[in-house]
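FIELD: query
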Amino acid sequence: MLAQQLNDFKVWLQHHENPSYRKLFLILKSIRACDLPTPMWMNKTVRTVYSASTSIWSNVVRVFIHTPAFKGRLSQYGRRLYLFGGVPFVSGPLSITLGDDCRISGQTTFSARPQSSDPQLIVGSNVDIGWQSTFAIGSRIKIGDNVRIAGRAFLFGYSGHSLDADLRAKGFGDLDCDVGDIVLAKDVWLGTNVTVCPNVTIGEGTIVGAGSVVTKDLPAFVVAAGNPARVIRSLNH
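FIELD: result
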């Protein structure tokens, strides 16, 4: 309400028929856009102090608040869990197991299908899960050791909605036959904005290009890309 009133007042000043009011608007605008001519040594000093203080504070919050809060939602976890950017959102009756040395964005979402019995997310060791990734666990998602998942990945073992339009309009969820597991073998690398569909296994060491949609199993040690994802070439190993 106050913001709208201030905006209306600004417009009123800017377009007033009295030149003095319009001049006042320009004066206020110049004050808002003022820029102090600070010397470079001062800029660098302030930047150093600001960077150090924000880094120290973010690490204190991460160690003493974010990480314990997330651990309190896990079924099992290994050593040296590293969260960055907050606490991942977890919903549904989900069991989460993490190995050692996992690095997870605080902007990640882990959701479980409410109708499933004991949905599980099993993550190996030395796994990176990037910014704004989403995991929708229908029954089980398993991620092997050394997997790298870039930002905005979407692994969905369930859609959450019925394929029948009438049932979907009434709020019914998906059927058990539309739910499936997802398995990422060790050393898999998913590029940015990759989608992995239900009932998909991606073989060891395979790389999936950015923006790809994986609808079927991919073999080990290949590069795959596209919608739907197809094998582009083999990898030497």
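FIELD: remark
The radius of gyration is 25 Å.
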